[in-house]
Write a structure and sequence with these properties.
- The structure holds 2 protein chains of 2 kinds.
- By secondary structure, chain A is an all-alpha fold.
- Chain A is built from 4 helices and no strands.
- In chain A, helix 1 packs across helix 3 and helix 3 packs antiparallel against helix 4.
- The longest helix of chain A has about 30 residues.
- The radius of gyration of chain A is 18 Å and the shape is elongated.
- In chain B, helix 2 crosses helix 4 and helix 4 packs antiparallel against helix 5.
- Chain B is elongated.
- Chain B starts with a helix and ends in a 6-residue tail after the last helix.
- The chains are: A mainly alpha, B mainly alpha.
- At the A-B interface, helix 1, helix 2, helix 3 and helix 4 of A face helix 2, helix 3, helix 4 and helix 5 of B.
Chain lengths: ~130, ~120
């Protein structure tokens, strides 16, 4: 019997599920600062009217913002993928569909994590 | 115990149920945007023309309004996430569960309403 006194998913007893449960809470706190900070800077203080190639190229010249974006990408994507995994396990009842959904999620997740990291790490501004 | 269809219609959940549903819906919404955002940012590798053309899309009013919805989803998910952490790690706070949810809703309204109005100011001109 799992203790069901929290507001989120009941805390798993041990193993990978416990680490996943803890990861959601720890990454959530870090993302509270990173993602809300990103939201304020890129969507409230600045916005799509002022953001263009030049803006992003200038921003990526500082290692600080590249690191910020890379950490945020990894935490947000892993947090989101693990959330999606929970939803699939909760709502996809047929075993075959569940295995298929989870396999698709992991492949998609790997591709997006690799693509996002590649873009942040290898970007070189052109034309000075 | 199985739930009959008419019970879905008559069932009225408590605050915790709405918080739970909203947390899942906003989570899915933010994840879908994150995947789209990874793709649009990848356009920067093809140089200024490709990236600026991509950003031009986000300048369409429908995306500007969607952006305000995204901000709301991130904000609610973040605030309710704090509520979940408090209740999970300090179970005795379950006694004040309703107050915590009211706190999330109040804080959300106080931060989000001015933010949404500010973000939508482009509609005025």
């Amino acid at each position: 019997m799992k203790a069901m006194n929290g507001a989120g998913r009941a805390r798993p007893e041990s193993g990978m599920e416990l680490y996943a449960w803890l990861f959601m809470r720890v990454s959530g706190i870090v993302l509270l600062f990173l993602a809300v900070g990103h939201l304020l800077i890129m969507h409230v203080i600045h916005n799509v009217e002022t953001i263009d190639y030049h803006f992003v190229a200038h921003r990526f010249m500082t290692p600080f913002w590249r690191t910020y974006d890379l950490v945020m990408l990894w935490l947000a994507l892993l947090h989101g993928l693990n959330g999606a995994r929970t939803l699939i396990e909760d709502y996809v009842g047929v075993r075959g569909w569940r295995v298929f959904s989870l396999a698709s999620l992991y492949i998609l997740g790997f591709i997006f994590l690799a693509l996002g990291s590649l873009v942040i790490l290898t970007f070189q501004p052109v034309g000075g | 115990m199985t739930i009959k269809p008419h019970q879905y219609l008559t069932y009225r959940g408590k605050a915790g149920m709405w918080a739970w549903i909203l947390h899942r819906l906003t989570g899915v919404g933010v994840l879908v945007f994150l995947l789209a955002h990874i793709l649009d940012t990848a356009a920067i590798g093809w140089g200024p023309a490709a990236y600026n053309r991509m950003i031009e899309l986000y300048r369409m009013p429908v995306f500007r309004v969607g952006e305000v919805a995204l901000a709301g989803a991130v904000l609610f998910h973040a605030l309710n996430g704090v509520r979940i952490i408090i209740l999970d790690f300090w179970p005795e706070t379950m006694r004040a569960e309703k107050k915590l949810f009211a706190g999330v809703v109040t804080l959300f309204a106080v931060v989000y309403l001015p933010m949404a109005i500010y973000m939508l100011r482009f509609l005025a001109h």
